[in-house]
Write a structure and sequence with these properties.
about 700 residues, alpha+beta, Beta-galactosidase, Chain A, domain 5, TIM Barrel, 3 domains, globular, disordered N terminus
Length: about 700
Amino acid sequence: MPPIQTPREVKAFVAALLFAGFCASCAAAQDAQEDTVRASVASPDGRILVEIWSEAGEPHYAVTLDGEPVLAPSQLGFRFASGPNLEDGLALTETSTASRDETWEQVWGERRFVRDHHNELAAVFENADGSITVRFRVFDTGLGFRFEVERGEDGDAPVVITDELTEFMLARSGEAWWTPASEFNRYEYIYSHGRVEEAANAHTPFTLRLDDGPYLSIHEAALVNYSGMHVDQRRDRQFEVELRPWSDGGKVRTSAHFTTPWRTLQIGDEAVDLINGTDLILNLNEPNQLEDTSWLEPGVYVGIWWGMHLNEYSWGSGPNHGATTERTRDYLDFAAENGFVGVLVEGWNLGWDGDWFNNGDIIDFTTPYPDFDLDGLAAYAQEVGTRLIGHHETSAAITNYENQMADAFALYERVGIRAVKTGYVDDAGEYMRRDEDGHARYEWHDSQFAVEHHQRVIELAAQHRIAINAHEPVKDTGLRRTWPNAMTREGVRGQEFNAWGDPPNGPAHTPTIAFTRMLSGPADFTPGIFDLTFERADGRRGVQTTLAKQLALYVVLYSPLQMAADLIENYDAHPDMFQFIRDVPADWEESIALAGEIGDHVVQVRKDRNSEDWYLGAITGEQARSIEVMLDFLEEGRTYEAQIYRDGPDAHWFDAPYDYVVERRTVTAADTLNFDLAASGGVAIRFASQ
């Protein structure tokens, strides 16, 4: 053994001894059994180590970082509705290893080129009834593992999974940030923050910070042909995967030979390491399946949307109908004048009248209201240099939508619409399908049925050269790599709650979701509200940010389709600030989170894919703060004009949300900028290459 010299080596050596002691009881038990085989795999930099073994015939794994435990021994296995389970009597019989270091190019995204650098271990556990191959891929930023299962019967035989026994047994306590699973409002909740032991039934991504570090995020990748997962705390720090059931109680319907999605664990020394490490999720998905992606159009859009949330207009027809030909032409002119990619129009089609929330079976996806000229407006949009963005609100009546989906996409393709916002407004667990006898069956929004429905939507939309922006969706698990027309989605408590939510989103909300929801992928959060002091029915301030923070959100919260969400007339009041929205791209060459803490602040920079310009967004939560930004991410030897949109000296989200400064400075990579950000404030900068 070489001599231990550095402090890190000393720390790692001591931690390894501690981990050995931590596992002493399980090691002693294994020595008394025939199966004492262990296998391990480390990250390319050697810091993360995964070990896997069979204990009393049950598969277990554990994870360390620099020799210190992160996950204590955690069980794996499956139970089924019929036939033998695969949870005990399993021996580790075979292992194989592999490595990969390659770079692939994204069609669009947070960065153009993604490095996939990992070490792989496949561990085979067998008993008389079948086998489980646990395939680990370990990156410098964390790990993913999936199960490749073979039961003894015919591979085509139907199988129903009733429980997946995957555990994440945290090695020690810490802090957690989570939203509740199994509640009516799907993923649309303000994040809870507390000690690990307080968390239960948590949606993923589930973000944690163990005492003395590191930061963790539990999630999943490549969710197809399976039920969505959340995690439930059974005992202190013992989190087990819970699969969303079908209406008949089974969790997953599959065959005797099946492969699961990847279960993922991001690991970082700092909070921003989680943001910078999300390529792990993409790398666990399959490559792009679309031969032609030239029709995909990232960018900023506007929409006839916010006015309905403010009760200025109605979704249904009548004297206040929002989706009229005249209003849409005004929005199309505005979009074209400002270089935006399109105009979203909600409420254009028959079925919104009355209680559309509960009457999804009556929605017609191909017939416009008489006051909406779909063909004429689509043609006018292309004439002025923009496009209509389509809208399909299903009210979660899935059979009605699927019966019309092919005709609806064909219609949109014919008139030149390239993107569609889909919606599934209803309580979680109210996804309504009709069985073969026409009876209503109700499924969860993240059930296997929902997962398979969304996959059908994406694949059919691709055939018609249409991108999807899904609202009330299944969470993102990186499928945008495989199907790049799955461009963005909601799955977050977005801006609309500031119009009527109880309560509205508070100052800490966006600097929290940057480290939680955003780890899964793009979110159509809909920033850009300029009327910050409109009157809500309850008298509360709805948008609890400064104006500068609204601009910074375009950089901090990524989406390839970003909305300028306010009524278009409200942008006239601050044309100097609106210029940033006109300039900011939605497709990036590179992205780097520079600094931040969960719920407190974020500093994010991104490089435009189509120029040499960089953009910065920084936001705060409840507390004002000063930030220092070193500009060494800029190209050396190049001069930039920093076009700065920042909080003014008296800015405060409640007292002075419109106090801002717009200024310009000449900078290089050698410079450092300092800013004072208000409570729930921000700064947005375009570094224009000169």
